[in-house]
């Protein structure tokens, strides 16, 4: 890609972003002077008009923009239906790359001819995505495989798209401070290039395969936390090529086939959610891209979910994993003190002391999913809550109307949380797309509890984090911690209960 092509690509992206922004701002101003009866129809036409613009440009540019469109197409819980309907097209295959180009890449990566490599190679691709194209093939030993081949020149395109996306996000944050997605795009800029190395994806696939106990080898100490999913085994990989075991499955958007095979969509999405709860809270290593295109459903009963594409993954440290579990349980219990403690442990800092609003934010994270037909009601409810929160913020901080619009309550947002929240949003969008209702607090709770239980059961001698490394607020607390460390090192603690009243405390052991 030459400099002229890069400049043209950049101009197309920025021009569309500016046009869409002005289109929405114009209607916001116009609706103040029109009857309520006309507003809904105007907004619907506006959404449809801009959704078409977005889809057209994403198909033209491909690269990172297709991945963004795939993500947006799953957010049926919050996005207008016009966007969901049109962007769903990006979950299907894009226009295929020439098979000669694909074969050329395969032979270059593996150093052998196609005839030497495969007994049979199907020229028609199974799927064409933003980064790679997938073909079915048969090895000389008779094994059925899929061959994932990276598009030629896609690395340059992806890196350029990341720069453009970063610039757009910075501009939006300046124009509309409440929509500051800088932490998200910063994390994406750090993680997305890793997807371009298929050796990295191969190792990620093997790791998740082992962690989830695929092929019936569940190693979890708690049998209730075992999950029933399938992941294809890795056969071979290079930087630009990945050969995987072939698994015959049904795409999630193939409604007719799902019904014909009698697939229980509720059970299916619940098992996918359990698999992600295990990855996040138990393993601390999870796939960050659970959009519908990255799942299949096995045709054989009990119709297990097949997890695909582990290019974008996230590894959590033990303290971060425990902090996320603590945040989840604090949200489930409505425990404001534990929630703020979890925020502190994970490095999430707020600019104001409003624990009730912090609780509301996490409750939004873990709220029950809703079918797509409730998306409009969802959006209205969240907009109303946001208005209430802004009013509380304005009173608390004594800000005028202009200041409150530009106030960002988050002082620090750790990168580890970005992919975590992305996964929760994608899972919520998946359940909405499948028209099922998922109670995340019920499904994820056992996994989050097992993390904290496991941390305690290891004992102080084996677990350096058994006392959280949080700031000490008094001499009494410092002495108490030192006592606990000494007792723990001597392995003399079976359990601890601390009661603090004004200036004294009692310890029961």
Automatic annotation (TrEMBL):
Pfam families: ABC1 (PF03109). Residues 89-338 form the ABC1 atypical kinase-like domain. GO terms for cellular component: endoplasmic reticulum; Golgi apparatus. PANTHER family: ABC1 FAMILY PROTEIN (PTHR43173). This is ABC1 atypical kinase-like domain-containing protein.
